[in-house]
Amino acid sequence: MKHVDTLIHGKHVIPVDDHRQALDDTAIAVHEGGIVDILPSADAKSRYSSDASYTYDHHLVIPGLINAHTHAGMSLFRGMASDLPLMEWLNDHIWPAEQKWCNEDFARLGTRLAIAEMIRGGITCFNDMYFFAEIAAEEVMQSGMRAHLGMIVLDFPTAYAKDASEYLDKGLELYHRHSTPSRVQCTLAPHAPYTVSDGPLKRVAELAHEYGLPVHIHLHETENEISMSLEQYQCRPLQRLHDLGLVNERLVAVHMTQLQDEEIELLAEVGASIVHCPQSNLKLASGFCPVQKLLNAQVNVTVGTDSCSSNDDLDLLGEMQTAALLAKGVAGDAAALPAHTALRCATINAAKALGIDDRTGSLEVGKAADITVIDIEQIEAQPLYDPVAHAVYATQRAQVCDVWVEGGLLLHERQLQTLDAEHILAETRDWNKKISNGKNIH
């Protein structure tokens, strides 16, 4: 009998592999942070001994969810300046609030709050774009979570850096500190075509090529962005980025609500990835990402929540459901973005976009034990006929009970294992009071 660290027995295990099916009464053997076997539970009991064993006899066991676009530090601005279009929301409310409040303490607590929320929602990895990424890295390591942290770039000064060169210098320092594969990795993160000029974007393209890094950027989010680009650069933003050497397999383009057919063909040709943020796009009335057209063209589509200030939550299960339903409405086709594809968008597709699909994103032997367990023995979640469809259409994040990253238990029976929830809440209340008393909130 072989010995492993942990045996996880699941009633319904959804590997999100190429077979596109759920496995009933199945065990996952975990050793030294990785999955070493997936086999029928009855066989596992006779083949393996373990230090710990968990039995989930009325649960869905899925790969840890991957939030492909966040601004974690902004969680302290949850719900600020609602019911406004993007540029008014940014220019008149969010950017002034950041200038006033954003510092290391703000970023630290905002990130910690976001991580706690995401773990409780079954998210095991997030792709972030925010200031003070070195602080975020410390919080990620403390929590046991996995993250890709953006080396953010802007033309204008903030509390974090004075110009594009300083942003990149700080980003490169972070990258060199986390250049070996670990739970913390980096992306290049120029904010958007309308906030970063050609010179810094060319430098981003050079660094992406030199270090093989993804480029995480807001792109084609609104009609106004397209109009501004046509007026200033005489071309659409995607074409401008293409001319600067940024449209390739490393591009992780967020939002993409304004796309022409030839642009979709280009994205497919180069192997770029798209992050669909349906709830943020809906709240800001930014438009609709043509998800089914992208999938038909075999573009890699992922799902992200965006920030708590434009979405109000970091609920990727909810985002995945919204994405699936919205895609059907936009395409006029009930078969658009079917359940298994929606689940892939929130798991293996996101891992592919970040270049970590060899390590996470699905439950397969040789990959990290990044695992989310969803309790379905509840009035609201019964009966069950199709586990995959159930995961997408009939579950809520409050049903997430246990979460592992690299075999480490971060959430058990809804209780955070590596973070102090009461302390986070107390600090958040203090910041809430400070911001409310110091700024008029819309």
Question: Can you tell me about this structure?
Answer:
The protein has 442 residues and is α/β, with parallel strands linked by helices. Helices cover 39% and strands 24% of the residues. The chain has helices at 41-47, 86-101, 104-120, 133-143, 164-177, 198-211, 223-233, 237-243, 261-270, 278-283, 291-296, 316-331, 339-345, 348-354, 387-393, 421-438; strands at residues 2-13, 23-31, 34-40, 48-63, 65-70, 123-128, 146-153, 184-190, 215-219, 251-255, 273-276, 300-303, 371-375, 400-405, 408-412, 415-416. The strands form three sheets. Strands 3-2-1-4-13-14-15-16 form an eight-stranded mixed β-sheet, covered by helices on one side. A four-stranded parallel β-sheet has the order 5-6-7-8, with helices on both faces. Helix 3 (104-120) packs parallel to helix 4, helix 12 crosses helix 13 and helix 13 crosses helix 15. The radius of gyration is 21 Å and the shape is globular.
